[in-house]
Every structure is written in structure tokens, then in C-alpha cells.
Amino acid sequence: MSIELLLTSDVLDLHYDDENAWLYLDWKGPQHLELVQAACQDVLDFIRQTGAQKALNDNTHITETSWELARWVGCDFIPQAAAAGLEYVAWVCSPLLSCRSNLSLMSSFGDQKLQVATFDDISDAYAWLNSVHASASARAN
User: Fold this and answer.
1) Can you tell me the distance from the alpha carbon of 122 to that of 90, in angstroms, rounded to the nearest whole number?
2) What is the domain extent for residue 46?
3) Is residue 139 part of a domain?
4) pLDDT digits over 67-114, tens only?
């Protein structure tokens, strides 16, 4: 299995799983809007560069988030990620209650163009992401 580290920052370690052709986003620490926005711009760039249509979004290492951040992710980032070619996201929830509440809020914002499934366990998220099939149209890397 080949997993390549693409980016590391204060809020995100971003990897590309070559075997599964998906991105692995390991969010960490306190999530501040400006830092997350910058990291998400990098994520969009890597969606386009790799042609990834799936992402494993791991929030288990987040220590703090906000309602404003959840709103921005739901209204701005998710539609941009879909436009960049992302089709499926396996979202592993943070164990923190405040983060879970924000995830519920986030899902109510905007028109979801990609399929997001939430999980408490990374192994369940992994299995689901393996079970879904991205569109057959191959995108150039």
C-alpha cells in the first residue's frame, strides 16, 4: 500500500492513498477558520491534481471547531470540492460533542452535490468508501 504525504499544516495532514485512489484528510488540533480555509484551498488543488473522486475525512484529532467554520465548510467548501470532482466523502466524526453538533449544522447548509456519509469509526468509513464506485469517467491527472 502506497500512502503519500502531500501536505502538513497546523490543522491538516493530507495524504494520497494510491492503492485506493483517494485522499486521506487527517484534521488535527483547534480548527480556526482562516487556517482551515487555506488548507481547504490546498485540498482543492490536490483533488484536481490527483483526480481523486473519494476522500476519507478524519476528524478524530480535532480539539476545537466553531459554528462559523461548519457553515463555511457546508456552504463554500463542499460545493467547491464537488465542482473539483470529488464525489464521495467518508466523514469520521470527532469524539467531541461540540464538533458533532457543528457537523449536524454543516449538513443543513447548501445543496450537497457530493455524497457524504458519517461514521464513528475509521474502519467503517474505510469499508464504506471502498464499497462506493466513483463515476466511470476517468479524469486526466
Assistant:
1) 9
2) 3-131
3) no
4) 898 889 988 999 999 999 999 999 998 876 555 555 555 555 455 678
